[in-house]
């Protein structure tokens, strides 16, 4: 029996060992019989790739993000898109809280002082900022945003959130104006979908202010990164904790001499448990697609 051709883009290393039932191909390919593709949302399958694959009927994504896919174009071509919703949101929220604590308490600078043998009592680094009692603005109130807000409650933060529309079931105060939320916030955590464009502009960063902290665990494309770096260097912004970047991998030189930052290499959803659950989700969506069954987690 001929194995169905399956496009994997980008290559997914050890995961591909699980795909023995498929004829795995990578891009570029001249195969015209590819009916399904597996991708990472931030990389995606471009419209040009879709046009080159006339039999494509499904794009299956690891993780919740689908920002590398033109959903309207996929729908026009009758291509189903699935993702791994509510698989790693708790893990991503953990990283957001970790970045908040790290920036407020100066973990990165503290470690640097210790490792460089510059620890001089009584205070190794200047006094840090207390987390309790600060105001947290959450941009995006989906599974990740709600998980961040829930965790933040335990640290005694006051919470408001911004999104395209109010949610009657929301447990926290809704602020419909993003600039007002930034001005109100001591900490602004970005948990919005990655397909919304550059919503964190220079003006939003300015509104957050010289004592404010920006946390981003969503997508680097949401933030004006040049404006962010300039504000951090000038002191117009107090600090930033970033797990995602405009370009990934981000050039290390770009962050030289940028103060008051904690940077992590897009590890938010990368726990063993989430990766396993994500792979199971991909496998089941593929099985259902080829069996002609309803897909497990189609993009709403």
UniProtKB/TrEMBL annotation:
MF-aspect GO terms: glyoxylate reductase (NADPH) activity; hydroxypyruvate reductase (NADH) activity; NAD binding
Q: Please list the residue ranges annotated as the D-isomer specific 2-hydroxyacid dehydrogenase NAD-binding domain.
A: 97-268
InterPro entries found in the cross-reference section: D-isomer_2-hydroxyacid_DH (IPR050223), D-isomer_2_OHA_DH_cat_dom (IPR006139), D-isomer_DH_NAD-bd (IPR006140), NAD(P)-bd_dom_sf (IPR036291)
Key words of the record: NAD, NADP, Oxidoreductase
Q: What is this protein called?
A: Glycerate dehydrogenase
Q: Does the keyword Transmembrane helix apply?
A: no
| EC number(s) on file | 1.1.1.29
Q: What class of enzyme is it?
A: oxidoreductase
The segment(s) forming the D-isomer specific 2-hydroxyacid dehydrogenase catalytic domain are 32-299
Q: Which family does it belong to?
A: Belongs to the D-isomer specific 2-hydroxyacid dehydrogenase family.
Which organism does this sequence originate in? Terricaulis silvestris
GO CC: one term? cytosol
């Amino acid at each position: 029996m001929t194995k169905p051709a399956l496009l994997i883009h980008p290559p997914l290393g050890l995961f591909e060992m699980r795909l023995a039932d498929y004829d795995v191909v990578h891009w570029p390919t001249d195969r015209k019989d590819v009916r399904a593709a597996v991708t990472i949302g931030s990389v995606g399958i471009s419209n040009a790739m879709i046009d080159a694959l006339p039999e494509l009927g499904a794009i299956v994504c690891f993780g919740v993000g689908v920002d590398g896919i033109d959903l309207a174009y996929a729908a026009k071509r009758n291509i189903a898109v699935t993702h791994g919703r509510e698989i790693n949101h708790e893990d991503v929220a953990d990283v957001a809280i970790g970045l908040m604590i790290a920036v407020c308490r100066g973990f990165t600078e503290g470690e640097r002082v210790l490792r460089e043998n510059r620890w001089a009592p009584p205070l190794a680094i200047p006094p840090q900022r207390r987390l309790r009692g600060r105001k947290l603005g959450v941009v995006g109130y989906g599974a990740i945003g709600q998980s961040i807000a829930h965790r933040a409650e335990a640290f005694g933060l006051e919470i408001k959130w911004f999104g395209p529309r109010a949610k009657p079931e929301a447990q926290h105060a809704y602020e419909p104006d993003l600039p007002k939320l930034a001005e109100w916030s001591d900490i602004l955590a970005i948990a919005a979908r990655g397909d919304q464009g550059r919503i964190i502009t220079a003006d939003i960063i300015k509104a957050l202010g010289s004592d404010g902290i920006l946390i981003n665990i969503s997508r680097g494309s949401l933030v004006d990164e040049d404006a962010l770096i300039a504000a951090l260097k000038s002191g117009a912004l107090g600090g930033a904790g970033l797990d995602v970047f405009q370009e990934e991998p981000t050039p290390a030189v770009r962050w030289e001499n940028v103060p008051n930052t904690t940077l992590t290499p897009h590890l938010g959803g990368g726990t063993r448990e989430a990766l396993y659950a994500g792979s199971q989700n991909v496998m089941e969506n593929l099985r259902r697609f080829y069996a002609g069954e309803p897909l497990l987690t189609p993009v709403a």
